[in-house]
Design brief:
The structure is a homodimer. Chain A is an alpha+beta fold. Chain A has five helices and eight strands. An eight-stranded antiparallel β-sheet of chain A has the order 2-3-1-4-8-5-7-6.
Chain lengths: ~200, ~200
Amino acid sequence: MSNDRCGTSRIAGCQFTLFPMSDKFADIILRALEEVDTSMVWKDTDDVSTCVRGDMVHVFDVTEALFLHTAKTGEHVAMSGTFSIGCPRDTDADSYMDEVVIPLNETKSNAVSQKAGCKFSLYPMGREDYMDAIYEQIDLSKHRNVEVSAVHYATRLDGDVKDVFRALQQSFDRVQEKVSHVTMTFTISANSPSNND
Amino acid sequence: MSNDRCGTSRIAGCQFTLFPMSDKFADIILRALEEVDTSMVWKDTDDVSTCVRGDMVHVFDVTEALFLHTAKTGEHVAMSGTFSIGCPRDTDADSYMDEVVIPLNETKSNAVSQKAGCKFSLYPMGREDYMDAIYEQIDLSKHRNVEVSAVHYATRLDGDVKDVFRALQQSFDRVQEKVSHVTMTFTISANSPSNND
């Protein structure tokens, strides 16, 4: 295992699934995919999940945009996944790391206003002091236009989808600056009939 | 942080969400809940996820049974979640640890035959040699009536839902015997129209 770092050229990835709780789930996903520019990430989908890989900025940009364009249909939709960076056995093969880092979906995403609730957990790997890195992050996320609360095994964020993803990305980014291998799990949900806000 | 262990009385938990891709998602979940005995776990549900806590045996038993009784409807359903044990800031609160450890849903679950695909990742925390624990597990899972394959950031298991959950539980159990704080993420999916098997 190597702890070599190469700044912004580290490959990030996200293994996620989009869940529209609707009979039209396939159409909803296909229509969202048409609206999202995924040209800057390597992408692979099977019957369980989708994996996107590339620069961290693109990985978050694509994941956020897919959720946003699915949620704006008004259907109850959720997304669960795991972001990962610095996995010791990871390779460059399936990523597009030579590209320019401009989030391609930002303008279109900014035009959508959508509330959501999200639970996430950060896992800095291979470090005995990992809990310190986690607690630092929970403090930081208080300043990002999102409501932060503690739940068992996770931190809950409530707010606009774009603010929630910004908090997720900043938390992940700050921990990966200090720790080589970091993973972050999340489940984000919108338009749930159980949420009466 | 303490590494104290107390054998089978360690509190395990799972934060998960059940996703029926159907207009009748609420009915499907409520009907599955009626079929599952959750009396041996502490349980809390909000609009994003459900958390169950208690003895590891009950936590896996309830999680498996909920997925099984949802999937047997024939609808495309999935479940994503994170199992956790030994979190340093965890407390004895919100669990029922004094109960006898007999999986209450096993007989009813055994009567259901259901195929599924699952991706899971093990995260042994606070250890520099964490990758060794992960690789050992991936080898072990080859012997449990499930088809095992490698995907980015995860291991894929295919087979009967009960065999898949048995492999998940054994993997988690063996790692937690060696490592105090372990988490394991999973996404399991059944009846997907994308799966032509």
